[in-house]
Specification:
The complex is a heterodimer. By secondary structure, chain A is mainly alpha-helical. Chain A is about 70% helix and about 0% strand. Classes of the chains: A mainly alpha, B alpha/beta.
Chain lengths: ~260, ~270
């Protein structure tokens, strides 16, 4: 079950999407999200689906991987759909039913929004190595250093967190097996009982994480880590023609969505 | 030859602890040599290790790396790039999600120009035989491979000394062999000074010099042959000696060799 967590996963490749500068990809994701929230009619949603599908095709990311990432969000998606379906005022679909036409439209729109939002985000993390991603973020946030934001420290923490996700998942699996072997039961019982059963996993996990953090800090210092000052990079970021084109297309998408919204499509 | 690391009457105890962990260590490590430090848990060998690059500072006494005092904070980066450290748990010293990014971490910290980092990373990965894995995710590698990546990460700093604290403790026999072979080769072929902290007797046989620690003191120091010949002392410390040495000892023959062929010759010679 824990193996399904796809957060922070990266599929190496050599497609135009992979080759884009991480900064452009982060900016494009923001444009994508804004455009998505601009969508108000079916034409708008249709365009967004098309764009997402196109990006997936170019980057050779199979829809299966995107859906795998959606799995943990399933509950939220179903919940959102049900709430919108049941609690939207309007003309009933059939006389006497609580479900309205507007409710149906809205719940489909909301589900599309969530799914596309997640798909877009996964497209970024699947096609960008975590190092490049945090590096790009550091560069983008750099101006905020002037107002005292510790940009390097934040992005370093992010990349460490991403690095340790698989390690901690592995460790959780190990602790769970150890507890199961001693008769712990994680599958049965009501929600409260199952939550309680998780406690004997969390405590050792926490303790070992602190030990890990301590060892990691010593190892980093031994490799001359002394903060962000005077640091260089092996892989320097370069904007290329490809990035210009991609950003231009992003701007075009945003313009198209604004127009569609204006005409209420 | 000038020693590259010199311990001068080093005492160490933790501020809150009453027990002294290092009790007057005097040790000189010659450049280009392979020194193994053998000892039980709690013998102080890991504490000794942490003194070599100023992770810990002596309570009294001095540690010198070349002509730099480890207590001198201005020299900290120079000391750390001279003495590269590899730790026990490979997972807790790998900082990046891609092998080559991890190896690049130290030179990036040192502000080395990009093109040179690239060269150093490739060279370091080739030295440990992990070049084909440069694009892999570290968590999918075996323990021995991870530890070799960790060694490459240190080599990319171009240190003079490679110090390893029980690098094989968490590995299977295959991984253990990979790591020890790599380290031995680095010493013999590249002239790297190696300090290997371990509690596995077998890993010390190939060393130039073997130091045995117990309760914060050095109790034996010499070539592996000399040290292992002191069978009673080793037994008192609860440490193993090679089977060949043990056989010669039981037979009451002179312990002048460790490899099976020479030992067989000694036994055959004694019989006739």
């Amino acid at each position: 079950m824990l193996k399904d967590i796809t957060l922070g996963q990266f599929f190496p490749g050599d497609t135009p999407v992979h080759r884009l500068d991480p900064r452009s990809k982060i900016l494009l994701l923001i444009v994508f999200i804004v455009a998505l929230f601009m969508a108000s009619g079916w034409a708008g949603y249709g365009l967004m689906i098309l764009v997402t599908a196109l990006c997936m095709a170019i980057s050779h990311i199979s829809p299966r991987n995107i859906f795998k990432g959606l799995k943990p969000m399933l509950l939220i998606i179903v919940f959102t759909a049900a709430l919108n379906l049941l609690y939207t005022q309007g003309t009933p679909l059939f006389p006497g039913w609580p479900i309205t036409r507007e409710g149906l439209d809205r719940s489909i729109a909301m589900v599309l929004r969530i799914v596309l939002l997640i798909a877009g985000t996964f497209l970024l993390t699947y096609t960008t190595s975590p190092m490049a991603l945090t590096d790009g973020m550091e560069r983008l946030l750099n101006p905020l250093k002037k107002i005292g934001l510790p940009v390097h420290e934040i992005t370093m923490m992010m990349s460490m967190a991403l690095r340790f996700i698989p390690t901690l998942i592995e460790e959780t699996d190990k602790i769970m097996s150890a507890q199961k072997a001693r008769g712990a039961d994680f599958e049965n019982g009501n929600l409260l009982q199952r939550a309680k059963a998780l406690l004997p996993i969390l405590v050792p996990l926490f303790v070992s994480s602190f030990r890990r953090a301590d060892e990691l800090a010593v190892a980093m210092e031994s490799r001359c880590y002394h903060g962000g000052s005077g640091r260089t990079r092996m892989k320097q970021l370069h904007f290329q023609a490809l990035d210009l084109w991609a950003l231009a297309l992003g701007a075009l998408l945003l313009a198209a969505m604004i127009l569609l919204r204006h005409f209420g499509l | 030859m000038e020693p590259i690391i010199r311990f001068e009457n080093v005492h160490f105890s933790y501020p809150e602890g009453e027990r002294e962990i290092l009790c007057g260590i005097n040790l000189e490590i010659t450049e280009g040599s392979f020194v193994a430090v053998l000892g039980h848990n709690g013998s102080g060998k890991s504490t000794l290790f942490k003194h070599m690059n100023a992770i810990l500072l002596p309570t009294s006494g001095k540690v010198w790396v070349r002509d730099m005092d480890t207590a001198d904070e201005d020299k900290l980066l120079d000391i750390r790039r001279t003495v590269g450290m590899v730790f026990q748990n490979p997972d807790n010293q790998i900082v990046a999600n891609v092998v080559e990014d991890d190896v690049a971490f130290a030179p990036e910290n040192l502000g080395v120009p990009s093109e040179e980092i690239r060269q150093r990373v490739d060279a370091a990965l080739k030295q440990v035989g992990m070049y084909e894995f440069r694009m892999h995710a570290p968590h999918l590698l075996s323990g021995g491979q991870k530890q070799r990546v960790a060694i490459a990460g240190v080599l990319a700093m171009q240190p003079k000394v490679l110090a390893l604290d029980e690098p094989t403790a968490m590995l299977d026999p295959q991984g253990r062999k990979e790591v020890i072979d790599t380290v031995t080769r680095l010493c013999r072929e590249k002239g790297m000074t190696v300090v290997l902290i371990t509690h596995h007797m077998e890993e010390c046989i190939g060393a130039d010099r073997l130091v045995v620690m117990s309760n914060g003191s050095i109790v034996a120091d010499g070539t592996p042959l000399e040290v292992f010949s002191q069978v009673e002392l080793m037994e008192r410390e609860g440490l193993d000696v090679p089977e060949t040495t043990r056989v010669l000892h039981e037979l009451g023959l002179p312990k002048t060799a460790m490899d099976p062929e020479s030992c067989a010759a000694i036994i055959a010679g004694a019989k006739s």
